[in-house]
């Protein structure tokens, strides 16, 4: 769950631009929640040294906080461009990683840092 100040902006960005499917929506006592399907989730636990390595590969410097959300897409370049047009700030354009994915880094609504990645090998 991500708590946001600009609910409509975050909802439009993650649902309408990134394309997460709405599963349910509720309104209680003036508050709102939308549950969006983000596909299969994994939780990566890493130490600072490895996080620094990932940032160096994807961005060229340490930029991530303690949480970064990654979304696998079919076309990293197109999705990165679409998200930037919708207000995300590009930190790093799509870059081929040593593990053969095309990764971009952005700052999105709700103070979430995003990795948009495309697997280059099947």
TrEMBL record:
<protein>
    <recommendedName>
        <fullName>VOC domain-containing protein</fullName>
    </recommendedName>
</protein>
<dbReference type="InterPro" id="IPR004360">
    <property type="entry name" value="Glyas_Fos-R_dOase_dom"/>
</dbReference>
<dbReference type="InterPro" id="IPR037523">
    <property type="entry name" value="VOC_core"/>
</dbReference>
<dbReference type="Pfam" id="PF00903">
    <property type="entry name" value="Glyoxalase"/>
</dbReference>
<feature type="domain" description="VOC">
    <location>
        <begin position="1"/>
        <end position="119"/>
    </location>
</feature>
<dbReference type="InterPro" id="IPR029068">
    <property type="entry name" value="Glyas_Bleomycin-R_OHBP_Dase"/>
</dbReference>
